[in-house]
Amino acid sequence: MKPTRIPLALACAATLVLAACGEPSGVERGVTTAAENGGSPLTVRADDAALKARVNAALAADEKVEAKAITVTVNRGEVKLDGVVPADQITRADAIARDISGVQVVINALRPAQPSS
């Protein structure tokens, strides 16, 4: 490792250690967003990224939802679902997203796919 990268590596390691300190045991990360607790923009983005990953994983785990057709965006715990899916999947995807811990609001902008002729 180059000498110039050592301070950066140490700073990253210290950030990870400090992020894990002080969190009460039994509390799931991301359940309360940093935005609700007056967190920094970086913390809010990290919470949103983790929440987006959990929503995407839950959608992908459901065999009856075409997760690849759904775009998930998250902003301060507000989840937006967008895309074109079969009509029966719209409410199912909405319910899956609402069931994820940390989701404050779901904006369902999914549109029904046109039936093929």
From TrEMBL:
List the protein's name. Answer: Conserved hypothetical secreted protein
Where does the UniProt annotation place the signal sequence?
1-19
Q: Which Pfam families match?
A: BON (PF04972)
Instruction: Pinpoint the BON domain residues.
Output: 47-114
What Gene3D superfamilies does this protein map onto? 3.30.1340.30
Key words, A-Z? Signal
| Record-linked InterPro entries | BON_dom, Lipoprotein_DolP
